[in-house]
Design brief:
Chain lengths: 203, 210
């Protein structure tokens, strides 16, 4: 049990997928302009991430790993080159299905997400999360925990970023550095502070 | 005004640089720039994928149904990425390992999707191809700059060849460890964006006067 808690904390804090692995930055810069948009994007990423990471991990175990087709009696076939196309397909399909379900059962939530949900297909945090869990050979339960942790970490980072940018509106930023430029400097400082969190799970 | 092929190639280098001016494709620009060699290899990979994906989409642009165009575009891009990844694994296995998942993440690089969506869907093959190459070069330019700064200050070397002799080897240079870590990349790109805005500004003003 402790291992899973450690994995969750690691994925959410010390190996934060946005601030340490630089994934999903384009979306973060676009949506952290307002707190509302940041919350929407954060929750959307969290949901999609916790669904697609285990799904792609399963696909990898039973289809694309070298020798994965042993259950079908074809142990010598290696389809790993096709993996990438399948993972992005799974992500696109999951996002589409999720959009339909949320639209039907939670119309309020659907309006809150707005355009972010379809755009998540091309968010590198999602594909990156799946690829990391495959590269590190997580088994199913580990990939569930990793998906939840990295999604929560991304959501946390973007909400923090939106809060800081909100305050920055009153700051006197040099000409030309406003907007994207200063956002990067802020993210750098946040990444520094997240590095300091790397000690918490060792104890 | 119709843009010439030359403009397609040269404008994305500075005036419309995808990273510093349009703020696209930043994730991988931050992640792979610990050293100059992975940066350059990543740049070559993106230039190739961007050019060929643009050309391929442009070839079939009149046959793609509008409702599923995003999926078609992504699958075409993913196919080229797989080809590039296999080539890298065959000819540069060490660097390919250092790039790890970031080669695959070219699929979700917003530069390529943005070029495909805005140029390849509307323009003939040759300008689309050149536009893809130009934007890849603009991306590569930024990667090379960031990679040079980070490797030189973080390890005192360039392309893994020592330039400053480090204190550990009896020299004078004490490497700044921060430059090998995540936060420095944010700072460098932030400052480059600042520089990019200042450089692009005269062009903006000139355009307004016209």
């Amino acid at each position: 049990m402790n291992d899973y808690l450690a994995l969750f904390l690691q994925a959410a804090f010390s190996e934060n997928i946005m601030l340490v692995f630089f994934l999903g930055i384009c979306t973060a810069i676009a949506t952290s302009k307002s707190m509302e948009a940041a919350l929407g994007a954060g929750v959307a990423i969290f949901i999609v991430q916790s669904v697609t990471v285990p799904l792609n991990s399963l696909l990898n175990t039973y289809l694309f790993q070298p020798g994965a087709l042993a259950w079908a009696g074809l142990p010598e076939i290696d389809m790993s080159a096709l993996g990438l196309i399948a993972y992005i397909g799974v992500i696109a399909a999951t996002v589409q299905i999720l959009e339909m379900v949320i639209d039907k059962h939670f119309p309020k939530l659907y309006n809150a997400f707005g355009v972010f949900l379809p755009l998540i297909t091309v968010n590198c945090a999602i594909l990156g999360g799946s690829l990391f869990s495959i590269q590190r050979n997580y088994h199913l339960l580990e990939s569930v925990v990793f998906g939840l942790g990295s999604g929560a970490g991304w959501a946390l980072a973007i909400v923090l970023l939106a809060g800081i940018r909100d305050k920055l509106r009153y700051a006197d930023v040099p000409e030309g550095l406003e907007g994207t430029g200063i956002t990067f400097i802020v993210m750098g400082l946040m990444a520094l502070s997240f590095m300091g969190l790397s000690g918490i799970y060792a104890a | 005004m119709e843009r010439t092929v030359r403009q397609y190639l040269l404008e994305p280098l500075l005036a419309r640089n995808p990273i510093t001016v349009q703020a696209l494709g930043i994730c991988s620009a931050l992640a792979v720039t610990v050293g100059l060699r992975p940066s350059l290899l990543m740049a070559v990979a993106v230039i190739a994928v961007s050019g060929f994906a643009n050309a391929a989409i442009s070839l079939i642009r009149n046959r793609i149904p509008n409702s599923i165009r995003l999926i078609v575009q992504i699958v075409v891009i993913a196919t080229f990425v797989v080809v590039v990844d296999e080539l890298l694994k065959a000819y540069a296995p060490d660097t390919s390992k250092r790039l790890s998942v970031y080669v695959f993440l070219i699929v979700t690089n917003c530069i390529i999707l943005a070029r495909v969506e805005s140029v390849a869907m509307n323009k003939p093959v040759w300008p689309s191809f050149v536009d893809g190459i130009g934007n890849g070069l603009g991306y590569g330019l930024v990667l090379a700059i960031v990679g040079t700064i980070r490797e030189l200050l973080g390890a005192g070397s360039l392309l893994d060849e020592p330039v400053f002799v480090t204190a550990a080897n009896g020299g004078w240079y004490e490497p700044v460890g921060l430059f090998r870590m995540a936060p420095s990349a944010f700072f460098i790109i932030g400052l480059l964006i600042w520089a990019g805005h200042r450089l692009a500004k005269p062009a903006d003003d000139a355009r307004k006067e016209r």
